Amino acid sequence: MSEQKVRWGIMSTASIGKRSVIPGIQESKRNTVEAVASRSLDNAEKFAKELGIPKAYGSYEELLQDPEIDAVYIPLPNHLHKEWTLKAAAAGKHILCEKPVALDEVEAQEMIDACEKAGVILVEAYMYRHQKRYEDIKKLIKDGEIGDIRGIHGVFSFNGATNLENIRYKKEWGGGSIYDVGCYPISAARLILDEEPTAVTTHALFSPDHGDVDMMAAGIMEFSNGVSLTFDCAMWAAFRNELEILGTEGRIVMKAAFLGDQSYDIIKGDEVTTVQEENINPYALQADSFAESVLDGKETKFPADDMIRNMRAVKGALLSAEKQQRIILNEKEIKTYA
């Protein structure tokens, strides 16, 4: 008898699904993609045929009504994440929702509450956090390999500015570089430090030609003991996705921190040690981790309130850029700094 697998439905024909997430699910051990839905049945059928998906639906509602679907992946525009997560939960489907999971922490809380009430799992799709090297790096830091942490620097940028119809350039849809790629170094710093930031200051380029969204942003996010994350992110700059962890005795550098090769360098003075992790598809790792929770009842790799805390930090970074102020991040609310 073959092992039970999670049967997935894909909610939309978005490029991130076609390029990365669906192939990852198909490559994983305990998952299978059974259906795709689009607002156009013709688009859904073409997409399904191209990716070898058995069923196609002309509406998201039809997908949610399919009793043979266990879980859905939601790569819709950011402002639709809450609406369709709530509908999927009500239909009894487990949910992998593209990052950022919501527009703010209030929405994230509503989504988590609805999923808990429905008895379904909600996971935010930060695939890089399933790479083994992040666990290994955290252990190296704990063991004192590079001394005491003094700071983290993270960048994620690409240039897609010529496509003015891109949904990332619709402010009311949750567009902008902080939501799209800035969330990666922010979430990585929280992961590595195992704590939450206390304040953030961000400066951004808002482009009238791109819906007035932040096309590039740079900031400093404050943690305890004088440690900070300095970061920049962009949708109108050369491609980079790097992370550096600076310690008193050395540093750890990931030249491809979120996408690409899963190696990292440990640098101490003139000595550079390159550690090459096995390049396992992180989207497949993410899918199998999800399946463990659905099929085996295992706790999700990250607790639900991690989504709330991450949204507080990400939203705070955007708010700082919009208000041109330092933003205080606390447990109850985001406050502007007077």
Automatic annotation (TrEMBL):
GO terms for molecular function: 1,5-anhydro-D-fructose reductase (1,5-anhydro-D-mannitol-forming) activity; nucleotide binding. It comes from the Bacteria. Pfam families: GFO_IDH_MocA, GFO_IDH_MocA_C3. The keyword Oxidoreductase applies. Residues 135-253 form the GFO/IDH/MocA-like oxidoreductase domain. SUPFAM superfamilies: Glyceraldehyde-3-phosphate dehydrogenase-like, C-terminal domain (SSF55347), NAD(P)-binding Rossmann-fold domains (SSF51735). The keyword Transcription does not apply. Keywords: Oxidoreductase. It is an enzyme of class 1 (oxidoreductase). Its EC number is 1.1.1.292. Residues 7-124 form the Gfo/Idh/MocA-like oxidoreductase N-terminal domain. Gene3D superfamilies: Dihydrodipicolinate Reductase, domain 2, NAD(P)-binding Rossmann-like Domain. InterPro entries: Gfo/Idh/MocA-like_OxRdtase_N (IPR000683), Gfo/Idh/MocA_domain (IPR050984), GFO_IDH_MocA-like_dom (IPR055170), NAD(P)-bd_dom_sf (IPR036291). Belongs to the Gfo/Idh/MocA family. This is Oxidoreductase. The lineage of its organism: Bacteria, Bacillati, Bacillota, Bacilli, Bacillales. The gene is afr_8.
